[in-house]
Amino acid sequence: MSGTPQLCVVQTLPREGPGLIHALAMERGWQLQVTQLWTDQPLPSPQHGRAFLLLGGPASANDRHGRIPELVRLCQHLLERQIPVMGICLGLQVLAKAKGCVVRAAQQRELGWLNPQGQPWTLHQTPAGRNHPLLHGLPDPLPVFQLHGEEVAPERSVETMASSPLCHNQIAALGPAAYGVQGHMELDQGMAERWFAEDDDLRPIAQQARFNEAGLETLMPVGRILYGNWLALAAERLAAA
């Protein structure tokens, strides 16, 4: 591949942006194109030299209205053409829906910094994850910020790389160039503050906002490694195309 690689970011609502991934991509020479799904902006088309980042939001991958079905169709093309794509939260679920997997209500919603026992949410790497370049250099267990009530059901065609007792597919590979993260490791300070102020699911646990500084001190270095690894894998994939 010649020229500047392009990262096509699909954002479903204003408060759920790319977070620290934006700075990581710029540092690595990516050109960012952001599509705001709440407007009438057309979705970016799969093209040579493009990778895709699908962000989270309160919609469901099972929605039959709005622009979610359109996003599922885009993901079908990305999977078929093995175009580099990362889905976060809803983004993972939409990728899974496009692959034909079941997206269902989670046995328990995972919200904020702390689990029901008052301990930080953590993910444990599977053997596949410990041997995968996406998770190279990451600790085990992994810290994470959670904000979801649905999950991708276990499926043999999905390679689970990190899991938790309440949600099997926390980090997963859905194809040779397709990955997803159920929780949020892209979070930065501004996003954390805004989410606790604006998100209806987080308002009932707004007292957890006091953990933002300490949580982000642990989370952000992990997010930089994880998404730095992904950007490197995506760039390699584009260069080989």
Automatic annotation (TrEMBL):
InterPro entries registered for this protein in UniProt: ChyE-like, Class_I_gatase-like, GATASE
PROSITE patterns documented for this protein: GATASE_TYPE_1 (PS51273)
Keyword Transferase: yes
GO terms assigned for molecular function: transferase activity
Listed Gene3D superfamilies: 3.40.50.880
GO cellular component, one term: cytosol
Domain of life: Bacteria
Keywords from the UniProt entry: Glutamine amidotransferase, Transferase
Tagged with keyword Transferase: yes
Domain Glutamine amidotransferase as annotated: residue spans: 26-190
A Pfam family of this chain: GATase
PANTHER family in the cross-refs: GLUTAMINE AMIDOTRANSFERASE YLR126C-RELATED (PTHR42695)
Protein's recorded name: Type 1 glutamine amidotransferase
